[in-house]
Write a structure and sequence with these properties.
The protein is α/β, with parallel strands linked by helices. It folds into two domains: about 1-105 and about 220-240, NIF3 (NGG1p interacting factor 3)-like (Udp-n-acetylmuramoylalanyl-d-glutamate--2,6- Diaminopimelate Ligase, Chain: A, domain 1), CATH 3.40.1390; about 115-220, Udp-n-acetylmuramoylalanyl-d-glutamate--2,6- Diaminopimelate Ligase, Chain: A, domain 1 (3-Layer(aba) Sandwich). Helices cover about 35% and strands about 25% of the residues. The strands form three sheets. The chain has a six-stranded mixed sheet, with helices on both faces. Helix 7 (about 180-185) links the parallel strand 10 and strand 11 (about 190-195). Helix 5 crosses helix 10 (about 225-235).
Length: about 250
């Protein structure tokens, strides 16, 4: 076992939280029991994840999307009240890392998604180095690359571009990162991969000749939290289990 204070201190340093101006608090968000034996990880701290984590015997729930977002209603009402009440009732710790988990060079969502897709990041650009850039081992048509992504993520992506376009240079950023399309264009990428898409993204992609792949917010952000959970489990001799609460977005 490890004490939650020790685990929190280590993870705050590992994630370099001070580097980021984020939309939510990073680290321990709801305090529970003092001793940690098992970590359950998931993408979002939904009620479904909380319930699954409790049934799995978790002491700590570690997520990418936690609570207390900037500009949200600060009152503890409705859904927020039910979630926090559940955590307190069962003495569960909730820890969340948002942008620090996207950007981490070894455990982050971007580098982990790159590994799943077989792309090694060569450089990072954009705010807090949140946009990754790399090259495929071999050139693929956009159609073939799309099929690879669908097979690896088990989800059909939404694709903007010519299916016959040749893809070698890839830029990507997980989650709702469609506004980084300009960075991908400036990098000279053949395609930009993110989790979501906006109406304007279609026009940017077609006019710039840079294809766009919306591969799913949830689907692209399943991997960083698993890597962090595995790292902490190995570091402190803990049990780790990832629970995937399905989400089509």
């Amino acid at each position: 076992m490890v004490r939650i204070n020790e685990l929190t201190h280590y993870t705050q340093q590992l994630m370099q939280v001070e580097r980021f101006k984020d939309y939510c608090p990073n680290g321990l968000q709801v305090e529970g029991r003092a001793e940690i034996r098992k970590i359950v990880t998931g993408v979002t701290a939904s009620m479904a994840l909380l319930e699954a984590a409790y049934l799995a015997g978790a002491d700590l729930i570690l997520v990418h999307h936690g609570y207390f977002w900037k500009n949200e209603d600060a009152r503890i009402l409705g859904i927020k009240r039910k979630r926090i009440a559940y955590l307190l009732k069962y003495d569960l710790n909730l820890m969340a890392y948002h942008l620090p988990l996207d950007a981490h060079a070894e455990l982050g969502n971007n580098v982990q998604l790159g590994r799943v897709l077989g792309i090694l990041p060569m450089r990072y650009v954009g705010e807090s180095n949140l946009v990754a850039y790399g090259e495929l081992d071999q050139t693929l048509s956009l159609s073939a690359f799309t099929k690879l992504i669908e097979n690896r993520l088990q989800r059909a992506p939404l694709v903007i571009g010519n299916p016959q376009q040749q893809i070698k240079k890839v830029a990507w950023c997980t989650g709702a990162a469609q506004d980084y399309m300009d960075e991908a264009i400036q990098l000279g990428a053949d395609v930009f991969i993110s989790g979501e898409i906006s109406e304007k993204t279609t026009h940017q992609a077609l006019e710039a000749g840079v294809s766009y792949i919306s591969a799913g917010h949830h689907a692209t952000e399943r991997y960083g939290v698993q890597a962090l959970g595995e790292h902490l489990a190995e570091k402190f001799n803990l049990i780790h289990e990832f629970v995937d609460i399905k989400n089509p977005v």
